[in-house]
Amino acid sequence: MEKDLNPDAGSNIERLLEIMARLRTPKTGCPWDLEQTYATIAPYTIEEAYEVAEAIRENDLPGLRDELGDLLFQVVFHARIAEEAGDFKFEDVVAAISDKMVRRHPHVFGDARIDDAAAQTTAWETHKAAERAARSGEDGNAEASVLASVPLALPALTRAEKLQKRAARVGFDWPEATQVLDKIEEELAELREALAQKAPREKIAEELGDILFGYVNVARHLGLDPEEALRSCNAKFVRRFQEIEKARAGEGRTPDDASLDEMEALWQAAKKSEQA
């Protein structure tokens, strides 16, 4: 199965790196793998990260092992493309993250003292801020925004939360979650007004975005992960809608030949059953 692979590979990671190199070898490699670029495999990288999170949520440890392997393969894939371009190697990726972990944990690898997880979180962010400032100086941009390093590629809910946390560290934040809810009420009124005035689609989207941003802010104040909250809501919706489908199938019918009132009654029945 693995003809011509180096039989003296000293570890599983070396084996994986050699497999990746073989997949990307011109003429003898895999045509699909050879065509890929950073951009084309980036969506797969994001997908694999979500599948890791899903395995954790489901407490699926065998699945988590496999999904972590898939995510590791994505790292190896990106590193191989970089190596072919002469930019960096997988070993450089490992060295960079190792150096960063040592640098950001002086209480473990040095003489600093951290008493609890909260203090470590504060220290971690301080180290990150110092690193950002250093990079800004190297780039000749000493006035870089505190929001500058929040990645654009993050899911919108996650990025909104990170932007809010970053702004909160310099004092731009509501003191209480209830104040955020009051602000959401204002934004809802503005959306209703935009709808009543038949405002342009772009204006309506803007008002809706303000509301979503506000709800992320509420989640942050409550110490909840908005992405996970929405994932759980999605799962709940699937469960309850499937109960509607089962109920209709038991009558030899489908949801699309039922009235909204009939489906709402079935939804409420599924809700009560689930709560019980």
Structural class comes to mainly alpha
The percentage helix is: over 70%
Number of helices: 12
**Can you name the CATH architecture of the domain at 12-103?**
Orthogonal Bundle
Quantity of strands, as a count: 0
Features:
about 280 residues; mainly alpha; Helix Hairpins; globular
Tell me briefly what this model is.
The protein is mainly alpha-helical. It is built from 12 helices and no strands. Among the domains are: 12-103, Helix Hairpins (Orthogonal Bundle); 228-275, no CATH class.
What does this structure look like?
The protein has 276 residues and is mainly α. Among the domains are: 12-103, MazG-like (Helix Hairpins, Orthogonal Bundle), CATH 1.10.287; 228-275, no CATH class. It has twelve helices and no strands. Helix 9 (177-196) runs antiparallel to helix 10. The relative contact order is 0.04. The mean pLDDT is 88.
Give the secondary structure arrangement, pairings included.
Layout: H1 12-23, H2 31-35, H3 38-57, H4 61-85, H5 90-103, H6 106-109, H7 117-138, H8 156-168, H9 177-196, H10 201-221, H11 226-250, H12 260-275
Helix pairs in contact: 1-4, 3-4, 8-10, 9-10, 11-12
